[in-house]
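As a warm-up, study this chain.
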Amino acid sequence: MNQPCSDEERPEIVRCNPIREVCRLKLCPTVNRYTLNQQMSKPGMLVFESEQFENFDNKWRAKERYEIASTDEFVEIFELAPPGKPFAVYSRNHFKRVRK
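Now compare it with the structure written out below.
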């Protein structure tokens, strides 16, 4: 059974390869691999697309998008696409720091 994430296990970019121009994202508590989509990403927005799921059908696709409003605020949008279907928003979270 998966344990809750500790502060050190929050979503993080775990590896960037400048030669291949690839960054990978680790999402806790499972090991799902996402790759940065550089064409969809832009200043203030990072878009990661699924590469592999640990405990899910790999025919599905997932997209994790971070829209950065400021150093104290961002929106996380998680999208899923069944095989042969377009992406649909599954969840949207708005994070705002209340104090520094």
